Amino acid sequence: MMPPPALKTSLRLLMTLALATGLSACASMPQKTPPPSNPTPVETPASTPETLTAQRAGQLTATGHDLAAAKDYIRAAAEARGQTQVHYLMEAAQASLKGRKPRVAILLANEVLRLQHDNAELRSAALWVRAQGFMDQGQTPSAKGNLEELLTITSTPQEVRAQAMGTLATLYTQEGHELTALNFLIEGDSLLSGNDAAENHRRIRALLDSQSTAKLQNWQGRSGNPLVQEWLAVALITRQNPDPQQRQAAISAWLTAHPGHPLINFSDHNATITDTSRLNPALGSICALLPSSGPYAPLSQAITAGMKTAAQLQSGPAVRALRTTGNPSYTAVLFERGIKEGCKVFVGPWLPQDINAVAAVRKPSDPPIITLGVVPGVQQSGLYTLSLSRNVAAQQIAVQSYGAGYRRAYVLYPQDSSGAAIQADFIATWKKLGGEVGGVATYLPGHTFTNEAQRLLSGSPGQDSFVFLVTNAKNANAAVSSIRLINNSVPIFSPALLHGAALPNDARGLSGIASVDMPWIINSGQSWPQAVLLLRSTLPNASDAQWRMAAFGLDAYRIAERVMDKDTTGSLAGATGTLHFVTRNQVIRDMEWMEVENGQIVPLSGVPKPGT
């Protein structure tokens, strides 16, 4: 069977553009010194025989005729359909990139992403091509977005993940964010071996050597990641102790003074770092096992503050903070040591890799855990889930809007790791319910909508349609205004749009948008007024995101008390919504709908009905 007319037209346009941009100009000549090819080619489904055109394209690729191969792969895609067709488009994109035609590569990768919302391997491969294409064109903000989204896909191969982290480190260094670059290099170090690891160590040392002593000392105070701290310590100690024996003694002394660090090896520093981890005596029976480094550090601080505030107001068990580092093995060690030192229930881990690591070592007799993230397939007796992410709100929009009568959604999200994860969860839930996805497009906050996004919104959606917009308070006005310039009537639902304590400075452009969030954000004083006063003193300069997470800390503590008392029936009126224990030990919360009118929040009784 032939592809549907709309798709045939799309492929014909791609072929026309490919010819116009020069795929055939040098089609008979091998391309010299191509950029690295995608190390994760997508395999053709084994049950589908290759066409003659595709076979010829494969032969051209093998002999270095990349542009001619790209042209034939596009023709092969026009002759095929289904997964085979998408595979040929992906091959054409990779060949175009190798043939130094980044614009064509990006367009082809866009088509793959448009056709494949759910295939993680194809999305990973297409994002990798787009990232390299944007880099070749000097569009580094777009390249960063693709790379960060690629890192959120669990099936992304290790070598691609490592290369993406290395590239992000380069981009952040160019932007003057050297500490962020250092974090990427050190995080990617565990993915490398042999010469690649040695080269990565050289990059780390070169970055450290280019910084002043004062800056390195400042970084030590800012980073909560022990791996980063130890690299910084070695850099400082090396400057002060040129003698190897003195340097080793100084490193050992530093580790003794700074316990709680995992085993790492500093190659070419004449020093072997040993694990001298020690934990302080147990401070409380409810233990917060939360990340202390990267973007999660200030959020973890707010969650812990919320938990300690609840402990004070409830006169309940004390709270003790166990700070994880992004090293899953170390998280598992912290969990086991926490048990030995008196933890009766854990709030956290939060990150998927940490949840997997703890679940792997946890025994049935160990204390219960309330994880703050969801990892599919991880289910144990005594392991509960209270998810903090906007993904939960995205899933709620899918369920409630489908129940209200909506049937088609148009998805628009910023191209970053968070936006990618939120829209993916929405689409998965929406499709499971039977909803239709009218289209998916990305946008770059602060920039004019792409042609793809404008096409997505320029049609005439029916009364049962809405736009699922992923944004935050900072970019919401611009995004909503851009949508209204294209379509002034389609409903817009946004997951936890007002995820902080305040509206944007000018929220008039948000009028008519419907959203979901929690009572704490709508009116903190009504949810738990005593907690507001205490948290304002504990977190005087809290960001909007921290204020939201403090509310989760208040509720997490009360859930932990319920779990300790083995009382998992009924509901709990929390700061983040009405909380329920459901099957598979999940804790769900009923959030509230609201809309923004003239810059003011107006609570709604439920999702607006279609056509209203």
Automatic annotation (TrEMBL):
The keyword Cytoplasm does not apply. One of its GO terms (biological process) is peptidoglycan biosynthetic process. The keyword Signal applies. GO terms for molecular function: enzyme regulator activity. It comes from the Bacteria. Residues 1-27 form the signal peptide. Keywords: Lipoprotein, Membrane, Signal. Pfam families: LppC. One of its GO terms (cellular component) is periplasmic side of cell outer membrane. InterPro entries: LpoA (IPR007443), Peripla_BP_I (IPR028082). Residues 27-49 are annotated as: Disordered. This is Lipoprotein. It comes from Acidithiobacillus ferrivorans.
